[in-house]
Amino acid sequence: MSAPDERVGRMEFLLGLRRRGISDQRVLRAMDAVPREDFVLPELSDSAYADQAMPIACGQTISQPYVVAYMTEQLDVQRDHRVLEIGTGSGYQAAILSQLAGEVFTVERYRTLADTARARLAHLGYDNVTVIAGDGFKGMPEHAPYDRIIVTAAAEAVPEAPAAQLAEGGIMLLPLGEHGGAQRLVKLTIGKDGLTRQDLIWVRFVPLLAGQAREL
Ligand code: SAH
Asked: Would you name the residues annotated as active-site residues?
C-alpha cells in the first residue's frame, strides 16, 4: 500500500498531465500504473512525481513525466505494435510503452544502465520488454520492422539505420537538433507516398552518441 501523502502526489501528477493537455486515457492509465519512484535514484524518490527530469547513473537523465506522456501520446501505440526505443536510460519510458504495446525493444549504450533497467523491469513484471546493450544508431535489425520507433536522446540528423527498420505506416519520434541546446521533437510517418515530417514541441535531451560507451 502506498502512504497517503504519496497517493496525493500521484493524483496531482495525473491532474498536472491532464492540465497540460494529455488526454489519451490509455496514456494517463499507463502513467498512473508505473511506479516512477522505482526508476529514480533512491535519494530522489521523494520527488519522483515532480514534473522534472532527474539525474540517473552514468551522467544520464530520466525524462520529465510530461515529455514522456506527450511522446507516448504522439506515438499512438496500439496493442499489436512492436516498438523500438533508443535510449533506455532508467527504463521508465519503456515501462510506460509496455502498458500499451505488444512488444517493446529498447537499446542503451551504457551496459550498467541496460543491466539495471532490465533487472528493474523484470522485477516489476514488465515482461514484454527486451533490453539490449548496444548502439542505437544501428537500430535493432534482429527484431525489425517496428510499427513505432521512439528516440529518447537528441539526434543531430535522422539516424538512417533505425529509420529503415520502420514498417510501412509506421511512426518515428525523435528530438532533432543541436546537442546542448533545445531540440525540436519531430514526428516522421512512413506512408505509401514516402516520409511526412511534423514538427512538435521543443524539448531538451541528452545527446545521442555513436558507439557503445567504453566506461561501464
Ligand atoms: N528513456 C529514458 C531516458 C533517456 S536518457 C528513461 O525513460 O529513463 C537518454 C539515454 O540514451 C541515455 O541513457 C544515453 O546513454 C542513451 N544513448 C545515447 N546515445 C545512444 C545510442 N547511440 N544508443 C543507445 N543509447 C544511447
From this structure: 63
The Cα 47–Cα 54 span in angstroms is: 9
The pLDDT tens digits for 175-187 are: 999 888 999 999 9
Spacing, Cα 150 to ligand 1 middle (Å): 11
* Phi, psi at 7, each rounded to 5°: -60, -45
The dihedral through the CA atoms of 162, 164, 166, 172 has a sign that is positive
Per the document, the length of the chain is 216
Report pLDDT digits (tens) over 95-123. Answer: 999 999 999 999 999 999 999 999 999 99
What residues form DSSP beta bridges with 190?
Answer: 195
How far is the centre of ligand 1, averaged over its atoms, from the C-alpha of 62 (Å)? 9
Atom 11 of ligand 1, nearest CA residue: 87
Rounded distance, CA 42 to CA 45, Å?
A: 5
| Fold classification of 3-203 (topology level) | Rossmann fold (3.40.50)
Residue 27 CB–ligand 1 contact under 6 Å: no
